[in-house]
Amino acid sequence: MESLWKLSYLLEPASLALIVTAVSVAYASASRALDHGKEMERNLDFSEASITLDRSQALMIPLASSCSLLLMFYLFSSVSHLVTAFTAGASVMALFFCLSPSIAYAKSQLNLMDPFVSRCCSKSFTRLQGLLLTFCISTVAVWLVTGHWLLNNVLGISICIAFVSHVRLPNIKICSLLLVCLFVYDVFWVFFSERFFGANVMVSVATQKASNPVHTVANKLSLPGLQLITKKIELPVKLVFPRNLLGGIVPGSTPGDYMMLGLGDMV
Description:
two-stranded antiparallel ribbon; single chain; two-stranded parallel sheet; 10 helices; 67% helix; mainly alpha; 267 residues
């Protein structure tokens, strides 16, 4: 009975929000992936816009992820600026990808004119797409300045949806192989890595914050408003919800406590 009582934390607002968000993201990722696949097939550009995994690639994903995890574990402080900058660029592209269908919907519903303004990487770029790209860049810029957990979640969700939409599993055998490999990867790094590396590698990487390059540059140039820029920032590789989501302090927690779920668990 006592063990069941310990599960009562699942009824906390933060827990419920995390569960609902994870389920919604899984559904949205699958739906967007189907729509994206149909769109690419119509445009005869399916092979260029997605990656279809074969058996060797499915086996390499856990190995590459393990190498990346160890790199982040040992050298995170040295490469955190680079990782943050790369993540910011990826977040802009992912957010643009996720919001792009809204452009087509707005044009069809409102009969909007959307003239081409330029071409980039052999693809046409319209005025509405330019406005959307500006919005995405602004959103990521605000995240870099404030480090707000809500923006972190928005960008993390965008990355998750974009990844699922562009990575294809051709059959159930490759899918099963990938899931088994990722299961072994997850179990090892969460439960057994401490025996080999002296610390829980997965938890250490997931909970450490990256140095904010915006703060570093502003500090070097002595720009005004430095105190408004967060020095350390959570990377959008997980969903985070404060334990005191609706105000007040949850028993046994502090104001800075967060519940989190890695994007890989949703993917």
